[in-house]
Structures are given as C-alpha cells and as structure tokens.
Amino acid sequence: MHASLCDFLTDIVQNSIEAGSHLISIQIYQDEHAMTFKVTDDGRGMSEEQLRKALDPFYSDGVKHEHRKVGLGLPFLQQMIEETGGDFSISSKVGEGTEVNWKVPLDHIDSPPSGDIPSALNSLMAYPGDFELRFYRCAEKGEAKEEYEVNKSDLLEVLQDLSTAGNLVLMKEFLQSQETAIEEFLQRD
Amino acid sequence: MAKMTLQELRKLRDTKKSEIQKRVVDDKDTQIIVGMGTCGIAAGAKEVLDAFLKELDEHNLNSVVVTQTGCMGLCYVEPTVEVISPGMPSVIYGKVDVEVAKTIVKEHIMGNKLVTDHVFDRPSADILKDGGK
Fold first, then answer.
1. Does B19 map to a domain?
2. pLDDT tens digits for chain B (133 residues)?
3. pLDDT tens sequence across A88-115
4. Interatomic CA distance for residues A12 and A8, integer angstroms
5. Does A18 contact B70 at a Cβ distance shorter than 8 Å?
6. If 0-12 CB within 10 Å is exposed, 13-18 middle and 19+ buried, where does residue B89 land?
C-alpha cells in the first residue's frame, strides 16, 4: 500500500502515461476538510469490461509482464478510499481517454499524509514521453483561495531538457516555491 | 517565500549552464533509471529519486541523466535502479534506499566500483567477483 496521497497520485498518472496519452491533466483541490484529486487523460481508454477488471487486484492485462496475475494501482486507491470514507469514481471510453476522481477526508484517522507534492510533480514532469502535463493546484479557506498552475511544455521551453540532474534540481526548486505559497496560505489564520 | 516565475527559472538555468561548461569532469553519459511502477512507488522510489538528485547536486554532477521507467519485474527487491555509466557494466541495483543511493553515486558513478551487495540483475557473476574492474 502507498504511504502518501502523492504516491497514489503518481501511480494513477503512470497509468495515463502508459495508456499513450498526449494530454494529461491533474487537479488538486484542498480545503480544511478534504483533498480532491482529478486526473484526466486522452489515452487509449478502457471498455466497461476492461474497467471492471482494472479494479480487480488479481487482474493485469499481461501486456507489460507476460505471466503477471496482479495489478494493484487502482485497487490500492479504491481500498484507501473505502478505509477513509472518501469518494472515488472512474470513467473511461475506448479511444477517448479516462477520468479518475477521488476525495480524501483529511481528518480521518486512516487518511495517509498528503506527502511531498513538488517531489511527486517533479518526477511526473520528468517521466520520459512526449506528452503534455497540466497541473493545477488550489487551496481554499472560506472565501479566500491560493492557486497555481504549471505546464510541462512551459518548463520544457525554459529548461530545454527535463532529464539531467541539474535541470531536475532547478525544476524541483521552482515547483517547491509554488507549493510553499499554498502551505503558507493554509497556515495563515 | 515568493513564487518563482518562469523568467527567474530561466535565469537560474543560464547560471547553472555556464557553471557546467566550466567543469572538467564529463558526466553526461551516465544514466540513472529509477523503477516507478506501483511496486517501486510503494517501496519508496520517489524518496530514492530525490536522494539521487540531492547527492548528484552536492557533487556537482549536473549532467547525469536521471530518468524513470515502470516496473522492471523485480518487485521483490524494490526500489530498483539501473545505472549505466561509461566504462562500467550496466547494473540493476535492488533494495535501494536513500543511503544506498548516496553510496551508488559515490562508489559506482564517481569511483567506478560496483556496490555489490545491491546488485540484483546484470552483470554476470564473474564480473561481480572483481568489483566490475
């Protein structure tokens, strides 16, 4: 089982990457009580039957690993949501893409910590592949809100290469500064 | 801390680039590939990726390519990391935590010596015996 909400996110976005998506969008909304994640992609999508199987931990399509009998990404997420009393939904259409939504109550005793968002985002932005990744993050407190948006194409334009250690360190610094603004906003009275 | 703008990021990159050009050590052909499948993530691969970046940064090894892949089929020894370095056999290390990541940078990448306790696939046993030399 994954240790943080970011690890669940990384796993689900991995699915989008491996589904051959060109555009992946991640949105994270947070208020005092819950964190809501939304991942949409335009990958190959799944039929109703495939989707049902994808939620079964004892199923894998066998494409990547020939004799493998388990596929735990989505089942892990579903299990965590059941344990914490959150919400989970997934919809998919062959040839069009997949959308996964989940909401985790932050005050439930079994809710995993949110984890290191800049670090998760850094690894997803750097994941090999020619796809666009749009990330939107928003925190709300009453009427006030703090938000930021980062696109992989902008980072790529500035850094030109998202694979060398030097550039990854710079990207992490950039992403951390965006997230720090959210952290400071959430701590403010 | 104020949010960094893309312009500021560009400036930082230009500064770093000029530093790299001044350096003598050539590290651009070295590649670190971290397994980021469900198994890797659950075992802490993200922390390991961060540890590699931190260690490489501390030693100014800015041109090393750090990339990711899905499950390498060695779920029982996650986190797994493949290291490809000039003059060394390509190696898949397993059970890599933050400390092992530091050791790999110091011994394998900077010292051209295998971290034999963590080799789980490639190279063959006879190469392992003499530490990859």
1. no
2. 689 999 999 999 988 877 766 665 556 789 999 999 888 999 999 999 999 999 999 998 988 999 999 888 888 899 999 999 988 888 999 999 999 999 999 999 999 999 999 998 765 555 555 554 4
3. 999 999 999 999 999 999 999 999 999 9
4. 6
5. yes
6. middle
Question: CA nearest B17 in A: which residue?
Answer: A166
Query: Exposed, middle or buried, A9 (CB in 10 Å: 0-12/13-18/19+)?
Result: buried
Please report whether residue B3 resides in a domain: no
Asked whether the predicted pLDDT for residue A60 surpasses 80, the reply is: no
One-letter amino acid of A80: M
What is the fold, at CATH topology level, of the domain defined by A5-187? Heat Shock Protein 90 (3.30.565)
- What domain range is B76 assigned to? 26-129
The contact set of A with B (CB < 8 A) is 1-3, 6-7, 10-11, 14, 18, 64-65, 71-73, 76, 116, 119-120, 123, 126-128, 148, 154-155, 158-160, 163-174, 177-178, 180-181, 184
For B50-81, write each residue's pLDDT tens digit.
999 999 999 989 889 999 998 888 888 999 99
Q: Per the domain annotation, does B11 fall within a domain?
A: no
Cβ-Cβ contacts under 8 Å for B118 (sequence gap 6 or more): B93, B94, B95, B96, B100, B104
Total domain count for chain B? 1
Dist. CA A12–CA B126, nearest whole Å = 40
